[in-house]
Design goal:
Length: 215
Amino acid sequence: MITVALPKGALLQDSIKLLQATGLDFSAFLDSTNRQLQIEDPTGKAKALLVRAQDVPVYVEYGQAQLGIVGYDVLREKTPEVAHLVDLHFGKCRLSVAVRASSSYQRSFELPPHGRVASKFVHCAREYFNNLDLPVEIIPLYGSVELGPITGMSEAIVDLVSTGRTLKENGLIEIDTLFESTARLIAHPLSYRLNTDGLNHLVEELRALTLSVAC
């Protein structure tokens, strides 16, 4: 039986909708009264795990799930040993540098050397500023990152942006984008290579569905 790791949060509904198109129904996860973290498709062909988005690649890497759906931002931050299979083209957002709207900084390279940048994407932020050859202190924050510049704890933040509404409401503006992110289909490398439980057939179905929507 194939096990799929699904992410809690913004990507869940579209992930379930995509899998439903292949005949797999995990819609019970969308029921607010449901507390199950593992459910089986009614056909008995597959089961799904409901986990934090950051944990999806962990379950796949360690083989507890053969497939997973997760944002590209998580893959860039965690760099897990998984097979990157398909760009699913939903959950579009971007990882951006933002500062106070009243700030004089208009580009990332204008930030002061050894300044402070708050982010939960510590690896991505450090890599980005290293590539700019700009030494900064990365302050790990895992909630309300926008408060960094507001309180003066940091000159900037690196965070995910979708509509930009949260930034605007907190007096912040984007000044640079590190990369664009969408949902990705990942697999346990050995399971994919060995076609465990007919895994490749499901992958090809998902690939075909994604291509048809993209076109």
